[in-house]
Known about the structure:
The complex is a heterodimer.
Chain A: E1 2-6, H1 12-22, E2 25-29, H2 32-36, E3 40-43, H3 48-57, H4 61-69, E4 74-77, H5 79-84, E5 85-88, E6 99-104, E7 115-119, E8 129-133, E9 138-142, E10 147-152, E11 155-161, E12 164-167, H6 178-186
Parallel strand pairs in A: 1-2, 1-3, 3-4, 4-12, 5-6
Antiparallel strand pairs in A: 6-9, 7-8, 10-11, 11-12
Chain B: E1 5-6, H1 13-26, E2 30-34, H2 37-46, E3 50-53, H3 58-64, H4 73-82, E4 87-92, H5 96-104, E5 109-113, E6 134-138, H6 141-149, E7 154-157, H7 167-184, H8 191-198, H9 202-211, E8 217-219, H10 227-235, E9 241-243, H11 245-248, H12 253-265, H13 270-277
Helix pairs in contact in B: 2-4, 2-12, 7-9, 8-9, 10-12, 12-13
Amino acid sequence: MIVGVLALQGAVREHMNMISRIGATPLAVKTRDELKKIDALILPGGESTTIGKLMTEFNLKDEIIRRAKEGMPVWGTCAGMILLAKHIVNQENTHLDLMDIWVRRNAYGSQLDSFIAEKRVEGVSEKPIPMVFIRAPYVEKVGSGVKILSEIDGKVVAAREGNLLATAFHPELTDDLSFHRYFIEKM
Amino acid sequence: MSEEKFKDTNASPERYSLNKNLAEMLKGGVIMDVTTPEQAKIAEAAGAVAVMALERVPADIRKQGGVARMSDPKIIKAIKSAVTIPVMAKCRIGHFVEAQILEALGIDYIDESEVLTPADESFHIDKKKFKVPFVCGARNLGEALRRIGEGASMIRTKGEAGTGNVVEAVRHIRTVMGEIRKLQNMPKEELMTAAKEMGAPYDLVLYVAENGKLPVVNFAAGGVATPADAALLMQLGCDGVFVGSGIFKSSNPEKRAKAIVKAVTYYNDPDVLAQVSEDLGEAMPSQEIDKLEDRYAERGW
């Protein structure tokens, strides 16, 4: 199984390492040709404004939307969650416009408000897993087809809608493979 | 209280890892110097991953001379409220009170920078005392590891800021990468002497020898004027690029900013580089390094 990581900007290498550790084949995706080779796609952390613009200018956006609508599993971490959202709070334009969630950007504040939490996620892990939040967004509201996977302090930080997965935190920055396993083996 | 457990991260090892990880999120991106909220918006719209809030860009600091200090908090706050991407700001080398002020302003990253006039000619800031992350300049591996030892969670090679001349940036990234390769090939018994000779903490020398890279993200900076300059530094092995005067001292900042962002993503694709390099107008006014009165890169101990 080839798992692509959108490699326009951000923490690409970390996801590639996790994918290899599970035994799948990672591929850094920068072009339409590379998009055609993959079975699943991770949208990494980084700056959503930067990745969103590059994705549009280099004609990757339409192809990602098409593949996602055909059922290819797509997982967005942090900035990737913003890219997936159909609604961005206080902002008119969206990016991929795929997942029925209302996302608030930089929801916790500046870097001084970044934090680490630990929590078990039903269906994903048996034990509590570390959750790294870096200038993170969270989900304020979800549509009826969206399943909430995890909440921290009353805010949704992980959710799934069919073949789409979104996390506000960064499993790729930890040693815990639970979320990558969940994405690759159960979606 | 629910089942989740929050961890105290103030100035702890976990805080340091959060700060290093913010830098990881900036990889493959361009950080642009801006002096007004309008410029900050142009930078954000062009795809910058962060902006550096300044009163004067390095080219103007060079021209006008005098002591260059931390920017007026009013400018920093105005820039902070104009954009959603991270905002960085510079303090003088060793000026820990300027750093305290920047932390109080809730800035996302502090650059303890040689572009400003140093406040201390022997000592840098003890960056481990701060919750806010720091990026520091370096010309070689020893300098980079000393800064990391003091608590920097990101490094940028210095280059020579405000010159529009990439030659020093190339020298510094080549030096750092070359010294990393050298450590990797050394038998372990030689590493203590290597640490002594480069003036670097031994544990960090061991890390580099084992892992073949710095323990933090390394950007290039100082003299980047064109998309080709940015791609050159990426191909030489840096993780991303700072552009100071190169954008807003050029004739078409918006177009050049966009072109440099694309060049950093597609640094290995000459077709894209050719396309984005076309018709950018005049680059910033440039200078030969030999004719400079002040070499900022020499500041740092």
